[in-house]
Hints:
By secondary structure, the protein is mainly alpha-helical. Helix content is 63%, strand content 0%. It is built from twelve helices and no strands. Helix 9 (166-184) runs antiparallel to helix 10. The protein is globular. 37% of the residues are buried.
Amino acid sequence: MAGQAEAFALSLSESRLGTGPMGRAVALFVQRSIASWRGSPERITHAVADRSRFPPTGQHVTTKPSDPWELARRNFPHVDDETGILATRMLHESGIELLSRARKPWDQVISLAILRFAARRLRGETLGCDVDESASPVADILAVQRYSEASGFIPLLVGYCGPGRPVDQARALLRDSRTLRDAVTAPNDTGAAVWQMAIDFHSFSMVSLKHRFLLGLPVDDAIEIAAAALRLAAASIETPGVVELPVMPTGSALSPEQVRFHARAYLRQTATKKTP
């Protein structure tokens, strides 16, 4: 991995990223990566074993603001505003080339940072952030979507290793998935499938981790989550080994059969209450 990172650093000198603020940011990113990979063999094993759990810490890390990559690495899949801003600026400077040059799983880390920051921009939660507001967050979302489709992975299908309870992380990722879907697709648009997969994925997690969580949500919101969880649970039962399921803490998650049972029970209960 360190050798790959050094090869990537060498390639920067021949690209548009080699000079200027973006070049320095990428250089810092590569230097930190090499130091981490060479200095912590155990962390390397965990980081490359499963890209959906990159890397497991569970602690919200506070470091110097000049090192957003360290925050992204330790807090994944949580993304703070500074990391989101830097990743978005780099995308604007170098285009999709930024992601195609990044070594795995850093392409997913950067993609997630761009998408989650774009979702917050669309919801008006980034007021005061130093970002070029003339650049549309929708264009950023579509750029990452094109890369993910070409690369064969969905950036928002990630595990829960960052700060906070897994069920809260799942809910936050579900909210971002909905924001992205609503921003770039029209109803019944086939392009919505990639975002609907993320919605189903994190809805399944919420029911699996804490199915009673549904009882505290607004009814319409809970119905959508239960229906999405039921879709993924049923698909995983009908085609085992084909559907990707979330990786969650041992002993705290329900099986697909149990998720299907609780999701169905909630939907039936709600339908009964609505029936005159």
